[in-house]
Amino acid sequence: MSGTTKEKVLQALLALPQEAYVSGEQLATACGISRTAIWKAIQTLEQDGYDIESVRKKGYRLASSKDFVDRAHIAQHLQTKHIGQVIHYYKEVTSTQIIASDLVQQNAPHGTVVIAEAQTAGRGRMAREWDSAAGKGIWMTIILRPDLPPHQAPQFTLVAAVAVVNAMKSLYPTITPEIKWPNDILINGKKTTGILTEMIAEADRVQALLVGIGINVNQQKEHFPEELQSIATSLRMEAGEVLDRAALVAEICRYMENYSEQYVTYGFSRLKTLWEEASGTIGKNIRATTLREVLEGTAVGITEDGVLQLRLANGDVRGIYSADIELT
Ligand code: BTX
Hints:
Elements: H1 3-14, H2 24-31, H3 35-47, E1 51-55, E2 59-64, H4 71-75, E3 87-93, H5 96-105, E4 113-119, E5 137-144, H6 156-171, E6 177-180, E7 184-187, E8 190-201, E9 206-216, H7 235-239, H8 245-266, H9 269-278, E10 285-289, E11 294-302, E12 308-311, E13 317-320, E14 324-327
Parallel strand pairs: 3-4
Antiparallel strand pairs: 1-2, 4-5, 5-9, 6-7, 7-8, 8-9, 10-11, 10-14, 11-12, 12-13
Helix pairs in contact: 1-3, 2-3, 6-8, 6-9
The structure holds ligand BTX.
């Protein structure tokens, strides 16, 4: 079954007004294929978990549109030119970063999104594990191909963090996400999102960036492994309702397209203010654990390169390039 036939049928079913049916014949004409092919597509969709009602003389309709993050659901909300125009969707992968890296070798275009319902080996920084419960979160990698030198790549983690926070705020005004430098988004002090940017580069040019975004959306406390229950949260736990993951994916693509274009054209200076507004780190006393040392002080800002500025007790200001931080 070709992905496109199945998706065309799904698009047609999703576009139906409530309670309306579409006949096999109408679907066949709309998709330009035989009625047998339509019937096969319906069967495949049912195997995928879609609940399709079939009534004699009326036709088909989606009895319930399950909460999937596939191309058809995301496309209903998408307002971008590049990001999300190509989507590779999977029920389960090891890690969307691994799939994305293979797709880069196959010339996947700028803006390609790799997204999965579940990851069996989701990863964080420094080979840490990222818990990716099936059907509950957004586990995706955005492939970007900016024309930039490699040293300007790490800032995309900051760009993505501002995009995710502002997408969340635009759809769910009651929640209060804050960036914890450099790559986490917390709500009420608990982690809801992690961002992992990896780069494929030649000596002087970025070939592709893999911006991995993991968001806990519809988990409840018991869906997290025990060791995460006290430090992790989901948007559902904070907003008090089940949320539409596909709508949030599309909104993130929209913000990400806008901010990454701004970054490539103007550098980080314009986004720095947005980042500082979205940050829960600036102005706070923190402890920063780097590979070499532990430093305590006040986070006073970030530089145009995204380096965290820490004022130590003796008044010196130190630049922190990479560290785990905690509020003290
Ligand atoms: P990080 O290294 O900053 O955070 C990893 C740490 O976060 C873990 O050691 C654990 O303590 C905690 N953690 C693990 N899973 C969760 C979770 N679901 N919610 C809250 N805390 C958790 C953060 O790395 C970057 C994560 C990026 C994940 C995305 S998902 C799509 C893409 N594919 C992939 O394999 N990774 C990225």
